[in-house]
Design brief:
The strands form 3 sheets. An 8-stranded mixed beta sheet has the order 5-4-1-6-9-10-11-12, sandwiched between helices. A hairpin with a 2-residue loop joins strand 2 (19-22) and strand 3. It is α/β, with parallel strands linked by helices. Helix 1 packs across helix 5 (203-218). It has a single domain (9-96, 119-218), classed as Rossmann fold, CATH 3.40.50.10300. The protein is built from 5 helices and 12 strands. The protein is globular. The structure holds cytidine-5'-triphosphate (CTP).
Length: 220
């Protein structure tokens, strides 16, 4: 039987962020938002109040979920912090790590004779790490890690560095799971050597398995 989340508030981030360069160009990534939307849907079905902060994706809003649409990493940061406090924060969004230092109000033009363009990028604020470092921290903070190699090693590093309770790692760039897919496989890592492989399975089924772990940790 699946654990109830009645009376709990979950904040879930999902999808990519788009960092605008000029009025027609942006830096984005291939996140579809499916994993975060599946988590929000299942959490709401299990009785949680869910705030879903969604980057630019084409996904229907799950039943019973309060959705806040954003575009950039800075907007996602603001929307997540506006949604706090919560019992659990699940950062499933693929937030841009860097954003253009300046937005060009007019479309950038080619310069005759110049074969290169240097775009200066600055680091975005780390939403996950900042939520985890807050004085009134959610009881549970869950991060995601998309890695192409040394999945467990890099993900365990993220667990420590960002001060989160669980990291869900998925290997991207191989096979039929991960970004853009309906299926996924996660390796969930926690403190004291906690390690649990979930899937491969449909993202909705994986969301249920992950929320079992969440409910165990924030349950009554
Ligand atoms: N994340 C965030 N804010 C950012 C960047 C990432 O909240 N500005 C969160 C994502 O939502 C996800 C996790 O951090 O939960 C993913 O981290 P990732 O960007 O892969 O980690 P990095 O520390 O940037 O590691 P690396 O440079 O090794 O990819």
């Amino acid at each position: 039987m699946s654990a109830s989340l009645a009376g709990r508030h979950l904040v879930v981030s999902a999808g990519p962020t788009f960092e605008d360069i000029d009025p027609v160009r942006f830096i984005g990534n291939r996140s579809s938002g499916k994993m975060g939307f599946a988590i929000a849907a299942v959490a709401a079905a299990r009785g949680a109040r869910v705030t879903l902060v969604a980057g630019p994706v084409h996904q229907p809003t799950p039943a019973g979920v309060q959705r806040v649409d954003v575009r950039s990493a800075a907007q996602m940061h603001a929307a997540v912090f506006a949604a706090l406090p919560c019992d659990a924060y699940i950062g499933a969004a693929a937030v841009a790590d860097f954003t253009p230092r300046a937005f060009a109000a007019g479309k950038l033009k080619k310069t005759p004779g110049q074969d290169t363009l240097v775009l200066e990028l600055v680091k975005t604020r780390d939403i996950l790490a900042e939520v985890a470092a807050r004085a009134q921290r959610p009881r549970l903070v869950v991060g995601f890690a998309a890695e192409t190699d040394n999945v467990a090693g890099y993900a365990r590093g993220k667990l420590e560095r960002k001060g989160v309770d669980l990291v869900c790692a998925n290997q991207v760039g191989v096979g039929a799971t991960g970004f853009e897919s309906d299926d996924n496989a996660l390796l969930v890592l926690g403190h004291d050597g906690f390690e649990r492989a979930l899937g491969p399975a449909a993202k909705s089924a994986l969301a249920g398995l992950l929320l079992d772990l969440v409910a165990e940790r924030i349950g009554r």
